[in-house]
Amino acid sequence: MKFLLAICILLCAVQKSFSQPKLVVGIVVDQMRYDYLTKYNGQYTEGGFKRFYSKGFVYANHNYNYSPTLTGPGHASVYTGTTPAINGIIGNEWYNKINKKDVYCAEDFSVQPVGTDNSESKRSPVLMNTTTIGDQLRFHTSMQSKVVGVALKDRGAILPAGHRANGAFWFDGKSGNFVTSTYYMPQLPEWVQQFNEKKLPGQYLNQQWNLLLPADKYPETDDVLYEIPYRSLSKAVFPYDLKKLAENTSSGIVVSTPFGNTLTVDFAIATIEGENLGSNKVTDMLAVSFSTPDYMGHQFGPHSREIHDMYLRLDLELKRFFDYLDKKFGMDNVLVFLTADHGAADVPAFVKSNTGYYSENKIQNYLNDVLQKKFRKGPLIENVSNLQIFLNHSVMEKFKIDEEDILQTCKQNIDSLSGIYGIMLASDLGECSWVSKECELLKNGYNPKRSGDLILMAQPGWIGDYSLRGGTTHGSPFVYDTHVPMLWMGWKIPHGISYQRTEIPDIAPTLAMMLGCSAPNGTTGTPMALMFEEPKTK
């Protein structure tokens, strides 16, 4: 009933005007907790993040409704209007139960790299099981609309752009260029070649990175043990001689500096110009992902001076981008939204107690030892990844070992695993007896064809030991990973703020209602109708 009411409200709002935006700009900030908006608010400019608050509409209680909260699933879910259970992107990588190999979420060995000889650019969206809002916009306009994805990470460009995109471009750290694959085109467009010829990464690295503001404006301690220094440095402290750092690595290191965001805005603007986006008789769409916050978050953690300064600089880059859109189209002709693909956990060393690091390798080895002692056969566990356990079904079938027996044996020994809250059969998710909210998130992230046989849940605050050297990570069903920004601005967007709960899959159907096209074919979200309700008169 609520879904039908939301649809009616949105349809009424859309029918008031037959006009359409010239351009939709979707922005995903990779690894942005909601509290980054409030924490640094006093130091943001009026034209960046604050512009959404003064001119747009803010959903302050926006959340992921599934786990694992990772980059690939996040970008896919924003644009497909559904969760990994339906769109199939269950992780950045996952274990293929059939061929017994790891799968990358955007891999496609049937295509070739374009603009590089790096085999890691054999990429496409073929593993995503549903359409995106960009696909549906293209279908609605008989393929006249243009849809392009842009990011430093390949998955951040490819998954949002969808199956029928005109292009997706990402940064190849080995060559220092933006590249694509033959899934989209046989060669780079001339405008991309011209952009690459500018060698902007090298220019941005030919400088010192110092604090944007005076040091006393940063309350964070600059030298702490839980940050990972750049290669060749012994400490993570300001200032950073980027030119020297680049000499010891390559221009690819730009992605781990604030100037990765600068490069992203440069390329986003070049994309609009090069593809003539927004100049058609129909609406075009540009999906932009800022990958740098994730690279830096993994390295420095959410309470570092580096992250603080990077977000202040990202704010300036957003202002530059919005000023460009204003001048090019007028913001009333552009529909902009900004969200994130996940949040980030506090570094255990920063919290100090009741947190720590779990090890999926140790979990696999430990449980295999336990099961071997019980059943005298094995190994019974093939893989543990994304907190899912993949069982060895050939051994189970040969010796008639039941999943329930394996589960009960694991449950009896689970207390020996540090940081693990519990374990359950994936087939029991529908009757999950854990906290209902977390059960629902785990269920929404589970895809029967791709996910594991047993599900693990970590304790709040515990993270994988791949972050043991420092920095942070994400992936849990807890609020620090699930609560993210949801900001709207521009075409037909009123000024306001809502504290009602909204969820990531709601974005795509909201866009569909506004643009008058069908929602993506796997949509499970509900349109965010509050932006379009009539003002109440006294």
Topology:
Elements: H1 2-15, E1 23-29, H2 35-39, H3 49-55, E2 57-63, H4 71-80, H5 84-87, E3 93-96, E4 101-104, E5 113-114, H6 133-140, E6 147-151, H7 154-161, E7 167-172, E8 177-181, H8 190-197, H9 200-204, E9 208-209, E10 240-241, H10 242-248, H11 259-274, E11 284-290, H12 292-300, H13 305-328, E12 334-340, H14 348-351, E13 357-358, H15 360-375, E14 381-385, E15 388-391, H16 393-398, H17 403-413, E16 420-425, H18 436-444, E17 454-458, E18 463-464, H19 479-482, E19 483-484, E20 486-490, E21 496-503, H20 507-515
Parallel strand pairs: 1-11, 1-12, 2-21, 6-7, 6-11, 13-18
Antiparallel strand pairs: 2-19, 2-20, 3-4, 5-8, 7-8, 9-10, 12-20, 14-15, 15-17, 16-17
Helix pairs in contact: 1-20, 4-7, 8-11, 11-13, 12-13, 15-17
Can you describe what's shown?
This protein is an alpha/beta fold and 538 residues long. It folds into two domains: 20-80 and 106-350 and 478-490, Alkaline Phosphatase, subunit A, CATH 3.40.720.10; 357-418 and 420-458, Gyrase A, domain 2.
